[in-house]
Amino acid sequence: MMAVSADDLREAVRRRYAEAALAVSEGGADCGCGSGACCGEGEADSTSFGEALYEAEQRGELPEAATLASLGCGNPTAVAELGEGETVLDLGSGGGIDVILSAKRVGSTGVAYGLDMTDEMLALARRNAAEAGVVNTHFLKGVIEEIPLPADSIDVVISNCVINLSVDKPAVLTEIARVLKPGGRLGVSDIVAEDRLLADQRAERGSYVGCLAGALSRGEYVAGLEAAGFENVSVEFTHEVADGMHGAIVKAVKTLEPERKGLPVVQPAAHAGCC
Ligand SMILES: C[S@@+](CC[C@H](N)C(=O)[O-])C[C@H]1O[C@@H](n2cnc3c(N)ncnc32)[C@H](O)[C@@H]1O
User: Fold this and answer.
1) How is residue 35 annotated by DSSP?
2) Is 166's C-beta closer than 6 angstroms to any atom of ligand 1?
3) Separation of CA 39 and ligand 1 centre (Å)
4) What is the pLDDT of residues 200-220, one digit of tens each?
5) What is the pTM of this model?
6) Can you tell me whether residue 155 is helix, strand or coil?
7) What would the 3-class secondary structure string for 80-115 be?
8) How far is the CA of 259 from the centre of ligand 1 (A)?
9) Which of 29, 44, 79, 146 is the Cys-Cys partner for 48 at CB 3.0 to 4.6 Å?
10) How many CA atoms, within 13 angstroms, populate the side-chain half-sphere of residue 51?
11) Atom number, ligand 1, closest to the C-alpha of residue 142
């Protein structure tokens, strides 16, 4: 089989999620999570991915298009314990569901950023945020391997079923550590494999764009986060989506003492704004 380059893989991911955003925008069904089109193909079904993972009360706070476009594998806003006035960043924000919920949690003195590489998703998210009436959101175009925000500017990083899609996971984890303030928190939902599964066994269970083939194992996630400068790392499996592969909650805290741990010390940003 011919090897696929990282650029081709990322482009395949972008195309697939652009189609998903357009399907929602045009009033059709979503991309068919649980039926093989996006995150959630193979053995997984609509109870393992998407809007079913949010409480009815939270869904009630959202425009219909935002819930329809929900393609995640968990609910990071339920685990991140957001506080009034905090600055939150959602990596791979899709149709904006977690950014809108976060914006409501942090209130008018806080800010919620969404970052996504797909124009169609950004357009959908901006429309959804306007419809939800939240004004403290900013949707940025870019890749999660090079976050377009200054160092030490974010209190909480969240993400929902996106890190498994990255073609360079060490870069993502390093970037998260860079943008978080010391002591800042990470609360992520993602697909994670049991350590017994080798990379080719993960690929047998589903495609890369379907969020399975690119998933890290629990041990790889923990080691990657610790190497990037995180402490109190935990990876909790919540629901099995394929044999040996799980929806999981990943939590960690950026160390307060990078020097003691021999990690790069980030210089404070000259300005806290962006873009
Ligand atoms: C499975 S969807 C999840 C969307 C959203 N988090 C949710 O829960 O509905 C993946 C999203 O991540 C974006 N994405 C995937 N890889 C990315 C990358 N390397 N950089 C930025 N965005 C990315 C896609 O465009 C898509 O919107």
Assistant:
1) T
2) yes
3) 10
4) 999 999 999 999 999 999 999
5) 0.90
6) strand
7) CCCCCCCEEEEECCCCCHHHHHHHHHHCCCCEEEEE
8) 33
9) 44
10) 21
11) 21
